[in-house]
Amino acid sequence: MKKQILLLLCLTLTLLTAVSCSKEPANLPADETQPAENVGEVAPETTDAASSDTASASENTAAAETTAPALTAPVVETGSDWPDNTFTKQIPKADFATVIGYTSSEADGFSVNLKDVDTDEVRAYIDAVKKLGFVNSPVAEDTQYGGFEVVSYEADNGEYFFKIGYTMNVATVTVAKK
After folding, report:
1. Which candidate, 114, 161, 99, places its Cα nearest to that of 135?
2. Mean of the per-residue pLDDT values for the chain?
3. pLDDT of amino acid 131
4. Are the C-beta atoms of 176 and 104 separated by less than 8 Å?
5. Over residues 121-137, mean pLDDT
6. In the prediction, which pLDDT does 70 show?
7. Between the CA atoms of 120, 93, 103 and 27, what dihedral angle is there, to the nearest 10 degrees?
8. Is the pLDDT assigned to residue 28 strictly greater than 60?
9. Considering only CA atoms, which of 116, 126, 108, 131 is closest in space to residue 163?
10. Which of 102, 118, 100 has its CA nearest to residue 166?
11. Per-residue pLDDT at 159
12. For 91-123, what is each residue's pLDDT tens digit?
């Protein structure tokens, strides 16, 4: 039962972290390059020079703005060891905890779930991250809810965004491009 609660908490923390780190809309699959509001619209046809003269400049501008470049899905890694990538090079390795799992995409960011975490270790880790420059626009919490300690910190260093959330001996660490 404890493992199930721990897994549920990790998944919840991961989802909350992923949602809070999203600064832009999700990528569309490569075959969906047209915005949803323009789906089904047909571009006006012109058959002669006279009819093309009647089109206004604003219609031409609007038509040009609806064309989006083809997007590709990012490559996502998963695993249970601390990886070596662009994002993990921005922060210290969390040697004080056991990696439950991680997801990483060079396009979007990195998120790792940790277990066997102590509150004091999280506080020390936050201090180490601050020393690396993650001090811009900080949001921090260190409190108790219903008898459980909750510690969180988020900030950026101008180029990357960092966030950690901790409760009940489990933490989620996220680094994303700003």
Report:
1. 161
2. 73
3. 97
4. no
5. 97
6. 56
7. 100
8. no
9. 126
10. 118
11. 96
12. 999 999 999 998 888 888 999 999 999 999 999
Amino acid at 112: V
Task: Quote the tokens at residue 104.
Answer: 């990483």
**Under 8 Å CB-to-CB from 138, ≥6 apart: which residues?**
153, 154, 155
pLDDT of residue 30: 44
3-state secondary structure the chain: CHHHHHHHHHHHHHHHHHHHHCCCCCCCCCCCCCCHHHCCCCCCCCCCHHHHHCCCHHHHHHHHHCCCCCCCCCCEEEECCCCCCCCHHHCCCCCCCEEEEEEEECCCEEEEEEECCCHHHHHHHHHHHHHCCCCEEEEEEEEEECCEEEEEEEEECCCEEEEEEEECCEEEEEEEEC
pLDDT reported for residue 87: 94
Q: Which residues are CB-neighbours of 20 under 8 A, at least 6 positions away?
A: 154, 163
